[in-house]
Amino acid sequence: VQLVESGGGLVQPGGSLRLSCAASGFTFSGYYMRWYRQAPGKERELVAHISSTGDRVVYADSVKGRFSISRDNAKNMVYLQMNSLKPEDTAVYLCNSWVLGVNYWGKGTLVTVSS
């Protein structure tokens, strides 16, 4: 199993970024996918998750109305569209999935929100 995130970078407050996670090594369409984030000195936080078919999504209260998770099962990709970014959204964003009882993580992509 491999999860590879991309799309992070430096963005001004109020800006947008779209993160991508490329998945391989498992039957992607059969599993929930999650985005987590970890800010310096803080615990890892679940940002959003999406069901295997994409019909059910859940967001952390801190990102509701600003972030949107989606997936493309034909491409084995999961995305996180982040709008109206705030400085407190600064963190490493990680892609995650439980596959056959094992918790897999990508290495993460850094998002910095600063003027």
How much of the polypeptide forms β-strand, as a percent range? over 45%
Please summarize the sheet with the most strands.
7 strands, mixed
Task: Give the uncertain stretches in residue-range form.
Answer: none
Q: Helical stretch count?
A: 0
- Average per-residue pLDDT, rounded, comes to 97
Class inferred from helices and paired strands:
mainly beta
Rg over CA atoms: 13 Å
From the spread of the alpha carbons, the general shape counts as globular
The overall strand count is 11
**Fraction in helix:** under 10%
Q: What is the straight-line distance between the termini?
A: 37 Å
Element order: H for helix, E for strand: EEEEEEEEEEE
Give structural notes.
The protein is mainly β and 115 residues long. 0% of the residues lie in helices and 53% in strands. The protein is built from no helices and eleven strands. Strands 2, 4, 5, 6, 9, 10 and 11 form a seven-stranded mixed beta sheet that branches. A hairpin with a 2-residue loop joins strand 9 and strand 10.
Describe the structure concisely for a colleague.
With 115 residues, the chain is mostly beta strands. It has no helices and 11 strands.
Keywords:
7-stranded mixed sheet; 53% strand; 4-stranded antiparallel sheet; single chain; 115 residues; 0% helix; mainly beta
Topology (elements, then pairings):
Layout: E1 2-6, E2 9-11, E3 17-24, E4 33-38, E5 45-50, E6 57-59, E7 67-72, E8 77-82, E9 91-99, E10 102-105, E11 109-113
Parallel strand pairs: 2-11
Antiparallel strand pairs: 1-3, 3-8, 4-5, 4-9, 5-6, 7-8, 9-10, 9-11
